Amino acid sequence: MTTVSSTNSAAAAAGMASSLGTKSIVETQEQFLTLLVTQLRNQDPMNPMDNAGITSQLAQLSTVSGIEKLNQTVLALTGQLDVSQSMQASNLIGRHVLVPGESIKLGETGVATPFGIDLMSNAASVKVEILDAAGNPVRTFDMGPQNVDIISMQWDGMTDAGTQAVAGKYALRVTALDSSGAGVAAEPLQYGQVQSVAYSAEGMKMDLGLSGRYALTDLRKVMN
Question: How many domains does the chain have?
Answer without folding.
Answer: 2
